[in-house]
Amino acid sequence: MSKRKGRAYRRRRRKGSVSLGTHAVETGANISHEPDFVQLRKWLKKKGFNGFYLVPANFPDIGRGLMTRKALEPGDLVIALPEKCLLTTNTILRSYMGEYIKRWKPCLSPLQALCTFLIAERHFGSRSPWKPYIDVLPKTYTCPVYLPEEVIELFPSPLVKRIHEQKRMVQQLYLASKCFFGSLQPLFSELVEKVFTYDTFRWAWCSINTRTIYMEHKQSEFLTQEPNVYALAPYLDLLNHSPSAQVTAAFNQKSKHYEIRTVTKCRRYEQVFICYGPHDNQRLLLEYGFLTNSNPHNVVYVNKELLCNHVSEKDKLVNRKMLFLQDEGLLENLTFGFDGPSWRLLTVLKIFCLRAEEYLQRKKVLLGLSITADNELGSLELAEKICFHLINENQKAMQNISRLLNEIVEVSDHLELVANVRREELQILQASAEVLQNMRVTAPRRS
């Protein structure tokens, strides 16, 4: 039996999906009869949940999701999950683990507490009251922290940097938690070193990072003052993401339920989606381990190193320009999109293209004013050079991935993920190159 890889396993093709957004019709195969889901639904019913017109289903090219058995109108309740179904830090502080957390110094963060509890409950198996929920959680993930280094290095360099930062953060969080794990030895017959491994911690971190809903809690004196906004929401967390889904979501203090309402219609037997936020595919991959087709938020990032490599070495003001742009906060989120280079990227390039005698007018560039025709044209040409450099880089990466797909079968799923990222970047850059060519043709001529 293959391991469940969750919402990350299959690439999200949205061509056929309808609901809470604009999609084409697609129905899924009802899987509510599967033993794990039968037990989960019974468990939820005992806790007061009865919204079972949403049923788990398998959808082509997407995997598991929730399908509605009745038509939904704008304003309708999609799901209302009772508070007692939610797994939060309050749940943990009231549990057997609470006394250990309360006396531990320095305090754990909310995230550390949730990771620790999830690992312990999975280890307890049939003795855990959370077993029906844990049994339907993915057994592994395609989040970047699970990817081997040889695959990570094939991603675009700005994304590689963010993946390494994320991996370091998870590793540091694990190391910072090890002493607390040791204090829990009385709870286990097995050595805690075998229970709380890096692999189990990584699984717990991914389960929380990819599946929690945002829910503010009162700060606890027993936890650090980091934002305590996590809640694991059984069943509700089967709802998949679509960038076009329109819903409202919040915890209702009167009913003590976490409620999601639709803003748009959804027809019977269609998949119900929610929107995790206006995220591009790099963010979705980092945080949730999947990509979406036709994502309107997709862009290609240009990092500072690439900029430096394309700026003229003869420019004696390059360091001053870099410092000025840094002080203005303009060296982050420089992007190419389907509609060409972003305003920020073009503005940065115009600053770099200023001659020494024009440098005093740099503030005017930030206001969107044109300095000279030479500067306008120079910045477009520089943008084209960077764009074609990135096109070339993506084409080489695609060739490399194609070769590796034939050589290393074990990581073919991971390589396909990289190939999809590279393919999308190539499409965006090619569209940007066309836009830049048109902009250059219509730009004022040099004097």
TrEMBL record:
Positions of the SET domain: 50-277
InterPro entries tied to this protein: Rubisco_LSMT_subst-bd, Rubisco_LSMT_subst-bd_sf, SET_dom, SET_dom_sf, SET_MeTrfase, SETD3_SETD6_MTase, SETD4_SET
Gene3D superfamilies listed in its UniProt record: Rubisco LSMT, substrate-binding domain, set domain protein methyltransferase, domain 1
Pfam families: Rubis-subs-bind, SET
Gene Ontology MF, one: protein-lysine N-methyltransferase activity
Top-level taxon in the UniProt lineage: Eukaryota
GO BP annotations, alphabetical order: methylation
Keywords: Methyltransferase, S-adenosyl-L-methionine, Transferase
Name of the protein: SET domain-containing protein
Organism ancestry: Eukaryota, Metazoa, Chordata, Craniata, Vertebrata
